[in-house]
Amino acid sequence: MSKVGKKLLFIGLTAIMLSTPFSQNALVSAKDQTKTAQSTQQKKELTSEQAINLAIEFHKVSNYVQRGGEYKKGEYQTFSYNKKTYRYLSSTIDTKKELKTYLEKVLVSSEAEQFIKNRGIIEYKGKLAQVEADGGSLLQWEKATAKYVKTEKDTLYYRLTVPVWNTNEKQNFIVEYQYVNKLGWKISKEPKQEKSTALTNQMVVELAAEYAKAILYVQAGGDYGKDEYKTFSYTGSTYRYLSSKLDTKAELMNYLTQWMTSSTAEQFIKNRGIIEYNGKLAQVDADGGSLAEWEKASIEFIKKDQHTMSYRLTVPFGETQEKLMYIVEYQYVDKAGWRISKEPYVDLNIPGNVNPISILFNNLLVDSKVAQNQFLPYSSFQVTEFKKGIRKVEMTNLKEIDRSRMQVEFIATIQVTVDNNYNGPLVSGENKLYFTVQPTGYMEYKIDQIGIVNMY
């Protein structure tokens, strides 16, 4: 070790916070071949009008199924299943064969299957049923306009712009179409609302708020069903399994990536110590909660990098009147939209005029109460004792040397004059002190640790 080193003597150390092959059997004249090709092309051409009409028909079919069909007198029946109220579909569509036949009026077969799955339609006692719920839409598909987008392999893409009821608002949907032999054009995927690549202020706040809710949901283990909450002992700690909707890696990732990028979701799982045990995900059994009201946050744009937009969000906490500033980073994910790309972290760019180290030395010999208030409440550092025998003190330099998610480390250089009988850790002349500073509120920071850096 070098003869010149640094030694930290901590005073008041406190705990740290928070592709049609050619066939010879299919020889035709060039003229006949041209006629055949033209006929096929005409047959397979999908006009804008046809695209709109198919979308209108899909909307009608979807609404029909969503309300259970057309019930005859005395046919509407409900039952309880998995703590939810289900209703049987009406007799015209209450078997898988009947429902698929109905859906395939507008959908390709595979998407009809997916439609049934997406709606949570189940078979119960030989008949199809769905969760009892109302349905409806303000979208006026009959007034939609269509614009061709592209063709990929056997699929045509159109963008349909749909008015919203009697407002000036319109929504864009990307609709995919495929030609089914002998049947004609069908929709190959449910119309999907096109997400704008513009990140609005409203989206910034809403995405952060939904992200925060998702984090609390996972920290609570999810939504447990009856007798589902189970714990076990592992490596000296009590763990609990996540609820059935989150207890596999695929389910948890699918849930988290609604609001964050895949890499961030992976890191979140790692940071929270979520493990797989006996084929199911589990986490340490602990309570979680927060008073942070992200939905009420005010925002400030910070910067735009190649793939990332960064914002500062000032978040209030309940009825405490307290606020805290966070840096939130967003990335656009293809076919998904904007997602949070890094866990929000506290803004630790501390302005000089509110840096508690500066305030400490400006008031050390002037106002002990103000100086003491620059430390965390549970700090054992005593300003009154520290300043005994110090006649003059001036901070000549303050340098940030490191930072973590919740604190910043500084080295302060001070010039000191002490009395002859001074019995403290400082010397007359130049001294260096080490500090850690943590945020405690909106534009408010406190000193957690202080130590003397001795040169020898």
Structure description:
With 456 residues, the chain is of the alpha+beta class. It folds into three domains: 43-191, Roll (Nuclear Transport Factor 2, Chain: A), CATH 3.10.450.420; 216-284, Nuclear Transport Factor 2, Chain: A (Roll), CATH 3.10.450; 350-455, Nuclear Transport Factor 2, Chain: A. It contains ten helices and 21 strands. It has helices spanning 30-44, 48-66, 96-103, 109-118, 201-219, 249-256, 262-271, 356-363, 368-372, 383-386, and strands at residues 6-11, 78-81, 84-88, 122-124, 127-131, 145-152, 155-163, 170-180, 184-193, 231-234, 237-241, 275-277, 280-284, 298-304, 308-317, 322-333, 337-346, 390-403, 408-418, 429-441, 444-455. It has a five-stranded antiparallel β-sheet, with helices on one face. β12 (275-277) and β13 form a beta hairpin. The longest helix is centred in the N-terminal third of the chain and has 19 residues, at 48-66. Mean pLDDT is 85; it is low at 1-43. InterPro entries: Endopep_inhib, TA_system-associated_sf. Keywords: Signal. Residues 1-26 form the signal peptide.
